[in-house]
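task queued by scheduler; priority normal; single chain, no ligands, no partner chains; default sampling; output format set to C-alpha cells
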Amino acid sequence: MLATGATAVAVADPSPDAVSAALAVASDAAVVDSFDAMLAIDLDGIVIASPSALHARHAIRALDAGVAVFCQKPLGRTAAESRAVVDAARRADRLLGVDLSYRATAGMVAIRDLVRRGELGEVFAVDLVFHNAYGPDKPWFFDRAQSGGGCVIDLGVHLVDLALWVIGGAAGGPVTAELRRHGRPVDPDDVEDFAIAQFVVGSVTVRLACSWHLHAGRDAEIAATFYGTAGGAALRNVDGSFYDFAATRFRGTATEVLTSGSENWAGRAAAEWATRLAGGSRFDPAAHDLIAVAEVLDAVYSSGLPANSASR
C-alpha cells in the first residue's frame, strides 16, 4: 500500500524474488544494488525490511544522512539498540516509524478509545496471545545473533506494544517469564518457540503468551483482552485468520460488537507514516515509546533465559 502522494523511487534487496515483489507494487522504481546506493539518492524517507540484526544500523545511517525512517519490527534487538535509533532520529529531527501494525486495526483503535475515556472503569488486567502455527520462513529468524530472539521478539513485540499503547505509560516492577524450545527450557544460544510472561504497567497486570509452530488447531490465535472494573473489551482474530479481526465489549455476561469484518489494515501504519512525512512531520517524541517496548522484551529475556546465558 502506497500512501496518497508517496512515490517509491528505488528498491534494494539481495533477493531477486523480493525485488520482483516490490516492483509489482512500485513498477517505476529503480533497482539499486546496495543500501549505500539507496542513500545516495535524494530521498525523503526509507523503508527498512532487512534482518533484525541490521535494523538499528541501517536506521541510524539513514537518519544521520537526513532521511526519515520506517522500520520493520523490532526496531532493535535490544533496548540499547532501539534507544540509539530514537536518539539518532531526535538528533536529525526526522520522522521515525515502526511497523507495529496491529495498532492500526479498527478494533484496537476502538478499544483504546474505550479505555482512554474510562468506559471500562479502572483497567486492572490484560491478557495477550499470539500463536502462529507456521512460524517464520527464513533461517535467520532461528539465529539469535541475527534475530535477537524467537517468538517473543517476533510476535510478543506486537503484544507488548498494544498493552503499553492502550494503557499508557511504561512497565515497572518485576517481570517473570518462561521460554521454551520444542517443549523444553530454551538453551542460551537457541531461540524460543513458546513463551509465557507477566509484567506490570502502572497498576495493571499484563499476561502474555506467544509461540511458533504450536498445535493450535488453526493458522493463528491472536487476542488482546482488557479487563476493567466497569467492563471489558477484546480484539480477537476470526477463524484463525492473520488479517480478519473482531472487537467486542463485555458488560457482565453481555457482549457488544465494536467492529467486525475484513479491513485493509496491513499496510496502514506505513501509509500513515508516509502521509505524515509528506505533510512535513519531523521527530515525534512518541518514538520514545519504542524504547519502553524494547525494555519489556529485554526483561522477558533476562527472566526467561538461563542465568549464565550470553548477553543478547
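post-processing summary
- The first strand starts at residue 10 and ends at 11.
- Residues 125 and 205 are 5 Å apart (CA to CA).
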